[in-house]
Amino acid sequence: MITTELSNIGNIIQTQRDFFKTGKTKDVNFRIEQLKNLKQAIIEHEQSIVEALQADLHKPEVETYLTEISVIKDIDYAIKHLQNWSKPQKAAVSWDFFSYSAKIYPEPLGVVLIIGPWNYPFQLIISPLIGAIAAGNCAIIKPSEIASHTSDIIAKIIAKHFDPAYLAVVEGGVEASQKLLAEKFDHIFFTGGTAVGKIIMAAAAKYLTPVTLELGGKSPCIVDTDINLEHTVRRITWGKFINAGQTCIAPDYLLVNKTIKKDLIDGLEKSLKEFYGENPASSPDYARIISEKHFERLVSFLKDGKVVIGGENQPSERYIAPTLIDNVSLEDSVMQEEIFGPILPIIEYTDIAEAIALINSRPKPLALYFFSQDKNLQKRVLQETSSGGVCINDTVMQVGVSSLPFGGVGDSGIGNYHGKASFDTFSHKKSVLQNSFWLDLKWRYAPYEGKLPLIKKLLG
Ligand code: NAD
Question: Which of 383, 389, 385, 387 minimizes the C-alpha distance to 405?
């Protein structure tokens, strides 16, 4: 394990501050070089990354490529657009500013801190890191201690390919996190649960450090009758049970039009068999629960409602079968907290207004899914609900579109990233107004006598 001594954290930050001051990271070519370095480093360690995720989450190799190593695509995207993103943008000025020109200069923030979770432990560290590098920052990275193998491989990759004065990894749990949070950073980018998000924000407030909080919550999935059932069940099955449901934007619960509920349950049963066979425990394509603690928490949900599919579990393997629960009440614990596992409760509605009211009675979710071809209903759901993002007639895929900012709202988070949004998150937009010397009208200078009529006219 390549671990930075916790007592050394202050020194590392100071070294990074000194490096930042040299101005090296302000050079866009330097940043592009570093992004290329990062890509090369990931490619070089592909196999170790696959193995680490297998050890942490029993993550199937295909899922590791699809959802973790795929971060390489984000590096390519940043390299392709970086020259353009980092150029000063001309800003318009009104006619009364005719002798001025205005520009917005994106500038790096300095030394930033990135704290990651365990569920997509590689991607959710590297993806914000791409933004930090692209925008010209130095970064300290704290991966999740719970996905310890992935934390180790991230530490190895960064230590081998980058100067710690530029990028450094601090491994460890709450203690490491708290030691880091006691220091001043220029931005903190945190991905994790809402409760810890509040701790991060409180710590950041001490230094007025800006934060991006990528949090979780209960993302609803509404299913109307006007759908292609076969496509719908497959897309829900995939989005819910990939990584054994340990996905921040997995559909947390289904809100199903009563008239289609039975067909939907039958369809989900069929697609689960298609994906994972008769016994998902022996499928090579089905992940495991990250820890005993989370396993216990999830198993306790199985007493809520009526299990209609799945429910089997094996503590020794931290295996929980893909599970559907019907007849749940909103007071059940499975409907009170984010599930974050392979358990999908089903709630029926008669009219879409009920589904919308239920969503609006709860904290704003990170994602909202709506399956329906009815354009009016689509419009209504979009207008009458608020969520970090929405995906219509699919699940989870919104996270893969670089042109869409990704983030929450309300309890599901503050700020966003991906593509240009990552660059913006890690940049300060410096407004620069420039005047010239060829003219100096005196209307704004004292003495003011006789100038009021002109000022009133200018104000229109
Ligand atoms: P977590 O909040 O427990 O931990 C996240 C990080 O915070 C870890 O690195 C951990 O070491 C650190 N941490 C934990 N307790 C801390 C404390 N008291 N003080 C300081 N730091 C502390 O989250 P998790 O269990 O790793 O991840 C699951 C949560 O993350 C879920 O709620 C999920 O929805 C959310 N999540 C959100 C996104 C997103 O993109 N919005 C992505 C993945 C996960």
Answer: 389
Helix (H) or strand (E) holding 76: helix 71-86
Quickly state the pLDDT bin for 4 (edges 50, 70, 90).
Answer: low
> Which residue(s) pair with 367 in the sheet?
389
Whether 248 is catalytic: yes
- Span 106-113, mean pLDDT? 98
Task: Give the per-residue pLDDT at 408.
Answer: 98
Tell which atom from ligand 1 comes closest to the C-alpha of 200: 20
* Annotation says 138 is catalytic: no
Q: pTM for the whole thing?
A: 0.95
Structural class in CATH, domain 220-407: alpha beta
CA distances from residue 87 to 35, 82, 135, 153, 405 in whole angstroms, order as listed:
18, 9, 11, 35, 20
Confidence of residue 458 (pLDDT cuts 50, 70, 90): confident
CB of 407 closer than 6 A to ligand 1? no
57 closest CA partner among 294, 243, 299, 298: 243
Q: Where are the domains of the chain?
A: 6-215+410-432, 220-407
CATH number of 6-215+410-432: 3.40.605.10
| Tally of CB atoms within 10 A around 405 | 18
Average pLDDT, the chain: 96
